[in-house]
Amino acid sequence: MFILSEDSQRTQGRDAQSSNIMAGKAVAESVRTTLGPRGMDKMLVDSSGEVVITNDGATILNEMDIEHPAAQMLVEVADSQEEEVGDGTTTAAVIAGNLLGEAEDLIEQDVHATTIVEGYHEAAEIALEAIAEQVNEGEVDDEILKQVAESSMTGKGTGGLTAESLAETVVEAIRHVETDEGVERENVAVHTQVGASSNATELVPGIVIDEEAAHDAMPSEVEDASIAVLDVELGVRTGEIDAEYAIDSIDQLNQAIDAEESEVQGYAETLAESGADVVFTTDDVDDRISSFLAGEGVLVFDNIGNSDARQIVSATGASRVGALDDLEESDFGAADRVRTKNYGDDDLAFVEGGAAAEAVTVFVRGGTEHVVDELERAIGDALDVVSTALASGEVVPGAGATEIAIADKVRSAAAGIEGRKQLAVTAFADALDVVPRTLAGNTGQDPIDALVDLRAAHESEGRAGLITDGEDVTIDDPFEYGVVDPADVKREAIESATEAATMIVRIDDVIAAE
């Protein structure tokens, strides 16, 4: 009896487990060298020759052409980490890969996969308790938030800017959108523009969109702007069916032209008299209307995207209007200033202050596309982790100190666990050592010596991380050096890595259709 098609391929038992584990380990290894302040970058080139240079774990894994289903699970780990807390993607992927490596050794010792899974889940619970014990007892103030942002960006491509200076901008942006209900993270945008040094990066109290004025004679700047947002075509109305009109005389032609001019003039006068200083519309604006409004000092942007229209409405408090006759003063939004500026081949519109200041934009500059892309990723991660830290109010030491503490607690708890599950719990602790070992290796230290020294310092001092200060590498309390991470980043990394590793370990049969 044939159950599967003849073209299907089936791998079972140890072969299936080994294949899946090997794929997961390979993915983890591909991003391991990017970890830490001395981590290296990866250059990714797609089939069309497009180049991405980054050390962001989620970006690397998403840009890689990964086909193996087990390896894809580690990509999902990074995606989940990025979506939930915004950073720690490399840490999560590396821990997951080493949990798989430790599981492979246990399987070779005839420890059943179910036992490994149970041991890993029990160890993960202990790990979460260890993270709670490492939380700093002080208040998460602006200084701590700057340290969180700086720790997130250290080692990433930030152009000519230091992580410290960018951290101030990031914290200012997050504080700007903080409300009594929490942080409105979606109100912070990052807009990139090539053509200047990264030192020109600034925080804009409002929004920035890729739009140019509908007419060259329109004002380049409007103060105390009343803003109308329309879904209206400002021009001569056209029917939905093809029609022809017979004109028998010059008088009839002149009448048709006059009627068209009257219609256009009516639109222009209606807008000019409405009181709107700035008009955004998602449809076309006739050149004659643009010219008339330019003479009236009205700034108009036409053919804006639907997402831009939503952003303007959200930022300024305007209401979108679908018919010009329905436009009322109550539909207007407000901003302290709307201005346009040219950057080479690009024109940008800045909507700043007033109601628009409820949203902020980190306006990122850089000399090349690669620089601004990496800056955008670094700043995006920093905004996410600062938001996470502010929301939870919990931070833990970075520089491998939290992983050392977790491994120590898990290893100690393993002694009280009976049966073969103890081996899995111990293996979980050993897998976490990959973080400090990798940090040491990436800074030029001997991984084994550094790990031994870190454990000894943790036993004696209670907190020890691998601190990189310029060319010097020392073992000390990360809090003293401002190397801190949100506790939720560590929790999410442990949970997502454990979930992925245990799911892969339990697979003993792979059926692939051709």
From TrEMBL:
Gene3D superfamilies: GroEL (3.50.7.10), GroEL-like equatorial domain (1.10.560.10), TCP-1-like chaperonin intermediate domain (3.30.260.10). Keywords: ATP-binding, Chaperone, Nucleotide-binding. GO terms for molecular function: ATP binding; ATP hydrolysis activity; ATP-dependent protein folding chaperone; unfolded protein binding. It comes from the Archaea. This is Thermosome subunit. Belongs to the TCP-1 chaperonin family. It comes from Natronococcus pandeyae. InterPro entries: Chaperone_TCP-1, Chaperonin_TCP-1_CS, Cpn60/GroEL/TCP-1, GroEL-like_apical_dom_sf, GROEL-like_equatorial_sf, TCP-1-like_intermed_sf, TCP-1_chaperonin, thermosome_alpha. Pfam families: Cpn60_TCP1. Residues 1-20 are annotated as: Disordered.
